[in-house]
Here is the input.
Amino acid sequence: MNLTKRILIAMALAVVLGSITQVLLSDDTLNSTLRYLLDDVLANGLFFVIGKIFVASLKVLVVPLVFVSLVCGVCHLKDQSSLGLLSLKTIGLYIITTGLAISLALFLATLFEPGSGVSLQTEASYKAPAETSLKQVFINIFPTNPIAAMAEGKMLQVIVFAVLIGLAIGRAGTAGDRIGATFNDWNEVLMKLVTLLMSLAPYGVFALLFSLFAKQGLGTIGDLAIYMLTVVSALAVHAFVVYPLILKTLTGLSPLTFLKKMRNTQLFAFSTASSNATLPITLRTVEQRLGADNRVASFAVPLGATINMDGTAIMQGVATVFIAQAFALDLALTDYLLVIVTAMLASIGTAGVPGVGLVTLALVLQQVGLPVEGIALIIGVDRILDMIRTAVNVTGDAMVSVTVAHSEGALDKAVFDDAAAGDVKA
Here is the structure.
């Protein structure tokens, strides 16, 4: 049985068994011993620990893999001046896809009107975070202490430092060649470690989803069904229509082949709800499954995990319209334009971790004068939607990486077309 089937089976079992567990735990007449076994021993004990260890095992690879891989890619550039054009192509595509994502979300939310008739009776509240100015966002991209940036997981700062080191190695002559060869060896070792972790994925995915659904269940889904349907519809259109159209138009490659090879990465992203935790898997897929050269993938994928939040932008667009409708507030055309611009800017430098979309949503709501307390209406279902939109985010990262690699002549089409290339054997 291949890895994809194993992960899908693990996910299905986890959702079913976790939901059953949540129903049992909500029964006040449940035997205390059984309650202890299901809650303390399994949901919040064994499976909680296994899930946390699995995510930690992925996250521990993020900084070293991004740093080593990006140094390798930059230091081996034959023409280092081409890095500027590569950067412009990558960032430009990310901005375009994010703009398309939030525009699509606003259109569908206006069409479906998910906030009409929603009850506003809720005791929950949400405190908006302090707003960071745009100039400070750009200042924060450049590290003052690269070691601290690595320790704190500030990926944009790590990327900048890795690019500088790679440029220096590429210009250091014989000494640079020796160090560059060492980084190549480290990159191979880290990629092998990613492959080993992928083989354990079904167990980690089961543990993560069982714990989640044992706590949350499926009860809150019915209360916000139209809102969820709108978000999921926008995510599906963006992932399976917009991305394939861009890929086909700009490269001529088969979107079906691309989507097939992205399945495992999407499942990883769904289970972790974190672009950063999935980053090692995404990078491996882009290089070994889709055939993009390391010099492109090592730059585009980590950058995408940091600034390319198409799925999050879609949620923010739908949620903004939903909250406005729920509070019976009208949005003008200028408000919609402000939402698009603010959501795109808010995604820059945003950490790819679970729940971060709610933080940036608060900033968007403040810009258009909507009550931030409205976020309390969607908190109950956001975790499930977060999992789906993370899968969309990593799909966008891979699509842009492949598109840029093709434009740079750095895509191995034979690898892209080979269904078995880079596959993990069960």
Notes: Residues 32-75 form the longest helix (44 residues). Residues 3-417 form a domain with the Proton glutamate symport protein fold (CATH 1.10.3860.10). The chain has 18 helices and no strands.
